[in-house]
Specification:
- This protein is mostly helical and about 120 residues long.
- A hairpin with a 4-residue loop joins strand 1 and strand 2.
- The protein is built from 4 helices and 2 strands, in the order H-H-H-E-E-H.
- The chain has one domain.
- Helix 1 runs parallel beside helix 3 and helix 1 packs parallel to helix 4.
Amino acid sequence: MSANVGLSLLVGCAFCFLAKSSSWATAEELGNQQANAVKPAIAPTALSAPQLERPTAPQDAGRGLSLFLRNSCGACHSIRGTEARGTIGPDLSHIGSRPAIGAGILPNTEEAIAHFSSA
């Protein structure tokens, strides 16, 4: 898994986390987010799309996966090759190959992820 994948998982699941409190979003809140989500402006890529360029710090991918698994994100999401086997949220196995994050409003780059997570 690349660093982009680990960072994307962390940022993508930030939508599920209530930033100003210590609790997780409820099913109702997540449903409202999905209903009001901005539709992607770019066409989704095929699952067989090549991964983005190799990361400069591969240890970040392991950290992202560790956070993902430790925070029970796999209860909703699945990532092939891990114990994350959720069926409620989207399969995140190929998130690093996506051209955009955040419902298609941000490019899937380290700079965009850093800007998003510091906002």
